[in-house]
UniProtKB/TrEMBL annotation, chain A:
<dbReference type="Pfam" id="PF02686">
    <property type="entry name" value="GatC"/>
</dbReference>
<dbReference type="GO" id="GO:0006412">
    <property type="term" value="P:translation"/>
</dbReference>
<comment type="subunit">
    <text>Heterotrimer of A, B and C subunits.</text>
</comment>
<dbReference type="GO" id="GO:0070681">
    <property type="term" value="P:glutaminyl-tRNAGln biosynthesis via transamidation"/>
</dbReference>
<dbReference type="GO" id="GO:0006450">
    <property type="term" value="P:regulation of translational fidelity"/>
</dbReference>
<keyword id="KW-0547">Nucleotide-binding</keyword>
<dbReference type="GO" id="GO:0050566">
    <property type="term" value="F:asparaginyl-tRNA synthase (glutamine-hydrolyzing) activity"/>
</dbReference>
<dbReference type="GO" id="GO:0005524">
    <property type="term" value="F:ATP binding"/>
</dbReference>
<keyword id="KW-0648">Protein biosynthesis</keyword>
Automatic annotation (TrEMBL), chain B:
<dbReference type="InterPro" id="IPR004413">
    <property type="entry name" value="GatB"/>
</dbReference>
<comment type="subunit">
    <text>Heterotrimer of A, B and C subunits.</text>
</comment>
<comment type="similarity">
    <text>Belongs to the GatB/GatE family. GatB subfamily.</text>
</comment>
<keyword id="KW-0067">ATP-binding</keyword>
<keyword id="KW-0547">Nucleotide-binding</keyword>
<dbReference type="GO" id="GO:0005524">
    <property type="term" value="F:ATP binding"/>
</dbReference>
<dbReference type="Pfam" id="PF02934">
    <property type="entry name" value="GatB_N"/>
</dbReference>
<dbReference type="InterPro" id="IPR017959">
    <property type="entry name" value="Asn/Gln-tRNA_amidoTrfase_suB/E"/>
</dbReference>
<dbReference type="InterPro" id="IPR018027">
    <property type="entry name" value="Asn/Gln_amidotransferase"/>
</dbReference>
Length: 95, 484
């Protein structure tokens, strides 16, 4: 599958990654090569093979429903750019 | 043209675990902002989620209660979107292999019939944090205490055909989760939230119309109101030559309307993929059998039993089985007094009235089921009459005594059935009321029946409400008619 510039820009926007014009054309090439490989994989006959949810042949371990964490808000908020009344402050978002 | 409404519901139920779905942080409601958001909930680098076994058990219990298929393997996926109250940049959810497969719920309708609503699936996911849009100097405040709280999202098939059916379905889900004890079901605190998919189509047409999704519908009443508004909006739109667009709308309870939410064009590009941090969850038959054996009797089964075995009406059975607290209270009253119909009348009448007046839940009733059962028993064995029973109830309610018997004794409410004593009171009343007696004797025979009420009232008053009313009636009639 051949990627276009607009695909890369859209993916970058969704991931909130800043990509300059110069970088974008490089990514178009790199990502297209990855997709070519995926195309190659698509050609393999997988009839009767169950989709793989995880590469490890193991199942999820569960933990007991116990509160094990203590309040470490002050520590965590030390690396936040802005806090007030215990809240993290972020640029205004209104839907 | 005749229109048919088609409704499907997505209900988010907050599971009543102590800790979060993937971390050991507390889920308690109402804590200081961000005091219950740990490194996993904050999405800090290098952390890994570990699944809460209780969240899995609760989801499976729900599945078993709605007779759903529980697949052996379920898988967590990442739903990617950018929003500040979602610190990881994705919500861990289940898109392709949910923990609960297709099932069904029976709802009770107003005409005493029932209808089956199919459940498409139910999946586990984590809740996001809360954004506070009050002005923080032009910034938004983020509280991540709720981030990572386990949710069970229950997705119905589009099987409902009216706002009433949708409300009945929501109530049925509420009953099931509270019976199971897997959620407190508190809609005001957001423990149960609901998105409604609504479309209309000409009656008889098979293909569905274009649907709108209404968010933020957080009470039983709002579900009905939001749907009623939305159905009218869509029908008007189509009849005026317009077209319904597939969109997300927000219900505004204050203005009683739904509004289109501004949607970004890429809003629905969630780029789901299996979460590499979590392995597939595998449930074996022994585990399912164990959970099945622990299931309590569920609302639909109780409703059925209340009708079949106890002879209650469909309405009574439905009201009394709606919540587990109500059902258990009623059953305890019934056990003590032995009469289902009387127990039902007292629980739905005097008790519910008093609870509503003081805005109390039945779990916090000042009168215990045992106390009420003993009171009903005293009515049934003719120790007290109905009027005195209401007095005893009030006394119990206000803590004036610990048992019906003690209050009956203390207040001297024991019913007087001794004919001699009642006759003496009647004679006194007749002697004290010459004018009324004369009126009675002069009245047309068909009017006397009504006039006797005055004398009954006087005798009951003289007995402080303890005389047996049927006896008073009979004896009075004899004595008055003898004066004619």
């Amino acid at each position: 599958m051949a990627l276009e510039d607009s695909h890369v820009r859209r993916a970058a926007h969704l991931a909130r990654i800043a990509v300059s014009d110069d970088q974008a054309s490089g990514f178009v090439e790199d990502l297209s090569r990855i997709l070519d490989m995926v195309d190659q994989l698509q050609g393999v006959n997988t009839d009767g093979v169950a989709p793989l949810a995880h590469p490890l042949d193991a199942t999820q371990r569960l933990r007991a429903d116990e509160v094990t964490e203590t309040n470490q808000r002050d520590t965590f908020q030390r690396c936040a750019p802005a806090v007030e009344n215990g809240l993290y402050l972020v640029p205004r978002v209104v839907e | 043209m005749q229109w048919e409404t088609v409704i499907g519901l997505e209900v988010h139920v907050q599971l009543a675990t102590h800790s979060k779905i993937f971390s050991g942080a507390s889920t308690a409601f109402g804590a200081e902002p961000n005091s219950q958001a740990c490194a996993v909930d904050l999405g800090l680098p290098g952390v890994l989620p570990v699944l809460n076994e209780q969240a899995v058990a609760m989801a499976v219990q729900f599945g078993l209660a709605v007779h759903a298929d529980i697949p052996e393997v379920s898988v967590f996926d990442r739903k990617n979107y950018f929003y500040p109250d979602l610190p990881k940049g994705y919500q861990t959810s289940q898109m392709y292999h949910p923990i609960v497969g297709p099932g069904e719920v029976e709802i009770a309708l107003d005409d005493d019939t029932t209808k089956r609503i199919r459940i498409h699936h139910a999946h586990l996911e984590e809740d996001a944090g809360k954004s506070l849009h009050e002005d923080f100097h032009g910034m938004t405040g983020i509280d991540l205490n709720r981030a990572g709280t386990p949710l069970l999202e229950i997705v119905s098939e589009p099987d409902m055909r009216s706002a009433k059916e949708a409300a009945a379905y929501l109530k049925a889900i509420h009953s099931i989760v509270t019976y199971l004890g897997i959620s407190d079901g508190n809609m005001a605190e957001g423990s149960m939230r609901c998105d409604v998919n609504v479309s209309v189509r000409p009656k008889g047409q098979e293909a569905f119309g274009t649907r709108a999704e209404i968010k933020n519908v957080n009470s039983f009443r709002f579900v009905e109101k939001a749907i009623a508004f939305e159905v009218e909006r869509q029908i008007e739109l189509i009849e005026d030559g317009g077209k319904v667009v597939q969109e997300t709308r927000l219900f505004d309870p204050e203005r009683d309307e739904t509004r289109s939410m501004r949607t970004k064009e890429e809003a629905n590009d969630y780029r789901y993929f299996p979460c590499p941090d979590l392995l597939p969850v595998v449930l074996d038959q022994a585990y399912l059998d164990h959970l099945r054996s622990q299931l309590p009797e569920l609302p639909a089964e109780k409703r059925e039993r209340f009708q079949q075995a106890l002879g209650l009406s469909a309405y009574d059975a439905s009201v009394l089985s709606a919540s587990r607290d109500m059902a258990e209270y009623f059953e305890a009253v019934h056990r003590v007094c032995g009469d289902a119909k009387q127990a039902a009348n007292w629980v739905q009448g005097e008790l519910s009235g008093a609870l509503n007046r003081e805005n109390l839940s039945i779990a916090n009733s000042p009168v215990s089921a045992n106390q009420l059962g003993e009171l009903v028993q005293r009515v049934l064995d003719d120790t007290i009459n109905g009027k005195a029973a209401k007095q005893v109830f009030q006394a119990l309610w206000h803590g004036e005594g610990t048992s019906a018997d003690a209050i009956i004794e203390a207040k001297g409410l024991k019913q007087v059935t001794d004919t001699g004593a009642i006759e003496a009171m009647i004679d006194q009343v007749i002697a004290d009321s010459p004018a009324q007696v004369a009126q009675y004797c002069d009245a047309e025979p068909e009017k006397r029946g009504k006039m006797i009420g005055y004398f009954v009232g006087q005798v009951m008053k003289a007995s402080r409400g303890t005389a047996n009313p049927q006896q008073v009636n009979g004896l009075l009639k004899e004595k008055l008619d003898a004066l004619l």
